[in-house]
Amino acid sequence: MPSTYYGRRPLAGYIRKGHKLGIPVVRGFDQAVWDKLYPSKHSKKTQKAEAGLATSASGAPPKRRRRTDPDLAKADRPTVSDLVLVIHGIGQQLSHRMESFHFTHAMNTFRRDVNVEVGTDQVKAHFRPDMGSIMLLPVNWRHSLSLDEGGYSDGTEDATSNDFTLKDITPDTLPSVRNIVSDVMLDVPYYMSHHQPKMIAAVIREANRVYQLWCRHNPHFAATGRVHLIGHSLGSVMAIDILSRQPTTIPAHLRNPTPLDLSSNQIDHFLFNTTNLFLAGSPAGFFLLLKKAQLRPRLDYPSATAAADPSANNVSICGERGEYGCLPVENLYNIINGYDPVSYRMNAAVDRTYAASLKKAWIPTTVGSWFGGPASGGMGWFAGGSGSTSTSTSTNPANAAPALPRLPSTVELETHNFSLEEIAEKRMHLLNDNGQVDFFLRYGGGPHSSYWLLRDFVRIIVGEVGRRGGREGTGVGMRAVKDNKAGVAGRG
C-alpha cells in the first residue's frame, strides 16, 4: 500500500529493484527449479544426514534420483537393518530444570551424525552385504522412576511414622550446587542401595517398550534386524547387570514382541538378542573389581567367532547365565576417553597377564585418514587378512623382519604358560572379534558427557555395527597387537 515509508508507487519500486511479485508458476515439476525458488532451510549437517540415511546402500544420492523420478527416491531408501538403543547414565533428573542436559536432544544430534557417517563412501564400501541403515533411539529410564519418595518403610501405615524425602534433609544453602549433586551424583549411591532392582527394572521396561513400538511400526524387523546397545556411565553398569542374567538366546515365544502385553507380563530381561555392546565412559571395570568377577563369553552363544572355533565353546573358557560379567553378545567395546575420570579399563577383567601383553589400542582417528595414512599409522581401518594379534608386517620379503632363532622349549616353558595364554586369547576373541575390549579415543578432551560430540566415537559405532562378522570382518587399525617390549609375566 502507498505510504510515507514505501512511497506513492510501491509496486513500481519493487519491480525496478528486481523483487519478485506474485506466486511463481512452474509448468511441469522440476526439482532444480523448485530448490532455486524455495531453498532448503535445513543445515548442511541435516542435509548430509538425510542423504546418508538414503544412501547407506549402493545407489545415487536422493537429490539426483528425485530429479528423474520422485517416487523412486522413496522406494529406493534402504530399510533399517540395525537398531541401536542408548541407555543413559546418571544426571537425567537435571534435565527437568536445565534443557541443555536433556538426553533426548543429545541423541537427536548423535543420530544425525550417525546418518552422515553411514552415507560416507569410505565407510559404506566396507559394510556387510545385507547392511541397510541404522536407527538410534534413546532409552529414557530415569524419567519414569522416583527414588526419593521417602525413607525407610515397612509397608504398614502408621500415623506416628516419619516418612521424609531428600528435599526435607537438604539444607537451603548453596542451592545451585546442592541441586546438581542431588540430580546428578546421587544416582550412584541410589544404585548401590536397595533401589538397584527398581532401577534395573526401569531400564528393562523402557528398553522393551521402545523395542516393541519399533517392531510394531517395522513388522519384519524382529525376524531380520539386529539390536545393539550403547551404555553410557552408570547405564553401562546396568547393561552388564541385565545381560549377565539375560538368556543366551531369546525363547521362541518372545521373539515377536508386538502381541505381548508388557504391562501385565513382568519380564526380567530384554526382548531382543544383543549383537554389540558399546560402553562409553564406563565404570564397569570398577564394579567387576568390587564383585571379584571376570568378563567371560557366554557358553553356547552362536557368534561367528564361536562357529569358526567350536573347541572354544567349553566351560574353561566360557561362563553360564547368571554369572556376573558373562555376557551373551558377539562383541563388547569399552570406549575410553583418557580425559574422563569415570572410565576404567576392562581387558584385565578378562585376563590380567594377557592384557599386560597387549599394546594400548588407539581408535583410528578421522583427523587425517581413517582407512589409511598418517593418522592411522599407515594401516587402514579395514583390510584383508586374519584377525591375528601378532604385529603386522609387510608382504614384501625384503621389508619383512628377520626370523628370530627359536629358543629351546625348556626356556620357553619357564617364561610362558601357553595353555593359559591360549585360553585367554580365545576368551578375548569370543568377547570381541578384534581380540581386545579396551579402545582409547585419541582426541576429545572434555566432560564425561562429550562422547556424543566426537566424530571418532560416531565412526567406531557405524563401522563396527556395519562391518562383516567374525575376525575376517575386522579392521587392521582395531585389531589387538602384542607389545614385544612389555613381555609376558610368568603365571604362578
UniProtKB/TrEMBL annotation:
Name of this protein: DDHD domain-containing protein
Region annotation (Disordered) ranges: 44-75
GO-annotated cellular components: cytoplasm
PANTHER family reported in the protein's UniProt record: PA-PL1 PHOSPHOLIPASE FAMILY, PHOSPHOLIPASE C1020.13C-RELATED
Residues in DDHD domain copies: 270-467
Pfam families in UniProt: DDHD
SMART domains given in the database record: DDHD
GO terms, molecular function: metal ion binding; phospholipase activity
InterPro entries, sorted: AB_hydrolase_fold (IPR029058), DDHD_dom (IPR004177), PA-PLA1 (IPR058055)
Tree of life domain: Eukaryota
